Every structure is written in structure tokens, then in C-alpha cells.
Amino acid sequence: MTQVNREESGWNLALAWLNALEETARDFHGARPRAFCERAYDHATENFLKILENEYGVTARKAHSIREAIEEYIRVGVIGGLFQDASQIELHEVNPNRLEIIVHACPYRKSCKALQEEGISYRDLTCARLGCFRSAVQQLANIDCTYEVSEINTMDGCRGYIERR
After folding, report:
1. Which contiguous run of DSSP H or E holds residue 99?
2. Global pTM?
3. What mean pLDDT do residues 64-72 have?
4. Residue 8: how many CB atoms within 10 A of its CB?
5. Residue 15 clears pLDDT 80, i.e. is over it
6. Neighbouring residues of 137: CB distance < 8 A, sequence distance ≥ 6
7. The domain spanning residue 147 has which CATH number?
8. Per the domain annotation, does 108 fall within a domain?
9. Which of 6, 112, 117, 147 could share a disulfide with 130, CB 3.0–4.6 Å?
10. Which residues lie below 8 Å from residue 154, measured CB to CB, with a gap of 6+?
11. Alpha helix locations (H) across 31-127?
């Protein structure tokens, strides 16, 4: 038997709570719990940014575009331990209103893959990574946007986009 280290334990606990949140959202809202989960991602992003600022003095700068907001969220996310480094996320700007995102080695991909195997379509997945990126855009750039998953690859990660509404 292997002892679980503190960092892995923290991620396991976060994943357990995230899965519980999304499962509960599906219990009450069926196969389309997006509005509920988006609100939870809004709160999670806001709380994460407040903790970084209040406890560690790390302030996320305001942004003027979707890409700039996500780059800033990634910057503070690396400082705050949410991401190992910025290379975990690839950003491809299709146009100023749409940003494609590839998340390498997403810790949540197994959950998304399991939901997909249960018959949930990409369109109905409530991706925590993309959902929090969407929230960061709203909070840091005041841009109303939506997100969607377009691919889940259990070996590499996930792909999706954020787009202005």
C-alpha cells in the first residue's frame, strides 16, 4: 500500500467535492445542470482570487479581452498552485470573440470521460476548467461569455472554447 502525499490528497479531495457538486446538480437539474454549475464556478473563481489576494498578496489584474483575462488567470493560478506551469494550457485566438483552449493533463478529464460514457454529450458537459476560465473572463474583463467542451482525450487532456455571448 502506498501513502498518498499531501498534494495528491488535496487534489483528490477537490476532485471528490467537484464530482459531488456536479452529480448533485444533475440530480436536481437532469442532464443539463449548466446554469447551476456555472454559478458554482463563478463562486469558486471569485473565492480563489480573493484568497490569493487576501492571504498571499497576489492580485489578478483587470483585463480588456478574453485572451488577456485567461492569461492573467493562468498567471495567478501558477502562483497559487492551481496549475503547475503555464504550458499546461494552450490558447488559440480564433478572433477577439472566441478563444480555443487546450488543457493538457487536466485533473478533471476522467470525470468528464465517465460522464460521456454514460451518454452525456460534449455540449452538456460542465467542465470545471473551462467553467472557471469563463468566470475569470467575466470577473477580470467584464465580458459575458459562454464555454463548450469540444474534445476529451484521457491521455492528453481536453479541448474547448470560450466565446462572447
Report:
1. strand 98-104
2. 0.88
3. 98
4. 11
5. no
6. 63, 66, 69, 70, 143, 145, 162
7. 3.30.1380
8. yes
9. 147
10. 109, 110, 113
11. 34-56, 66-79, 109-117
